[in-house]
Amino acid sequence: MTVTDGTPKPAERLAEIEATHKRLRAQATLLGEAGVRAPSTLPGWSRAHVLTHLGDLARAFARQALCALDGRVVDVYDGGRPARDAAIERGAPRSVELQLASLEDGLTQLEQAWALLGPGDWDRPCGYRGATLEATQLCWWREVHLHFTDLDLGYRAEEWSDALARHVVGYLLPRLPADRTTVLYSDGDRWEHGAGAPTTVHGTRQGLAAWISGRPAAREPKAYGAHDSLPELGSWP
User: Fold this and answer.
1) Residue 120 neighbours by CB under 8 Å, 6+ apart
2) How far apart are CA 1 and CA 175, in angstroms?
3) CA geometry: angle at 137 spanning 154 and 107, to 5°?
4) What is the C-alpha to C-alpha distance for residues 133 and 235, in angstroms, rounded to an integer?
5) What gap in Å lies between CA 219 and CA 165, rounded to an integer?
6) Roughly what angle, to the nearest 10 degrees, separates helices 96-115 and 10-28?
7) Other CB atoms within 10 Å distance of the CB of residue 187
8) 116 — phi, psi (to 5°)?
9) Each residue of 39-92: pLDDT tens digit?
10) Distance, CA of 12 to CA of 16 (rounded, Å)
């Protein structure tokens, strides 16, 4: 049912992603003009910034899939990260109607592109970090759940699946400092990173995932050991 590290296979993730798309669509359509202008929980970003980014990234990953099926490898964003950032700033001021239309267009394109993929197609090379299409699905799995949380529409980290929480923690371990040993522990799950005086950080899976990704958690993890404070987190990998 799952691969060796407990991460669901692509078909299983698709079912969870599609369910999240359905809920995101339903809650986003309740936003009025004032709602879309309101701040998200991401510093410096309104809800409009988050919605713009989700629509743009969905289209970018749809293109990755279609090009990979044609045997072509293209950049995720033409012009790289600067073009991506500029597109978000251009898109954020749009009306709520245009924001919702862009989100729907992106989600639909992504769903349709991924529907064309067979089980073996997820191993096709693509332009995302020199990896395979499965890496784009893993990225979107993270992004759609984290940014849905950022929209502050009632969806919370506590609702993330155990599989997603485990994946987020494992993916973001490089954010932990290298000069101290940090052991993350939750209900039998254990991760370790760094070297030096050890600190154990204990919490729920979802609490650990929220903390290491910089999102709010109802129950923040607690640190014990050589350092009784949570480690300072570095940049994303």
Assistant:
1) none
2) 29
3) 55
4) 24
5) 14
6) 160
7) 10
8) -80, -10
9) 999 999 999 999 999 999 999 999 999 999 999 999 999 999 999 999 999 999
10) 7
User: Closest Cα to residue 77, out of 114, 111, 128?
Assistant: 128
Place of tokens 């510093």: 43
Domains located in the chain, CATH noted: 10-155 (1.20.120.450), 162-225 (3.30.1050.20)
Band (pLDDT 50/70/90 cuts) for residue 171 is very high
Token duo for residue 136: 């784009």
> What is the distance in angstroms between the CA of the first residue and the CA of the last residue of the chain?
28
Give me the residue label for tokens 């929209």: 151
Which among 46, 31, 18, 56 has a CA at the least distance from the CA of 154? Answer: 31
Pairing of strands 189-193, 198-202: unpaired
For residues 40 and 65, give the distance between their C-alpha atoms in angstroms, rounded to a whole number: 30
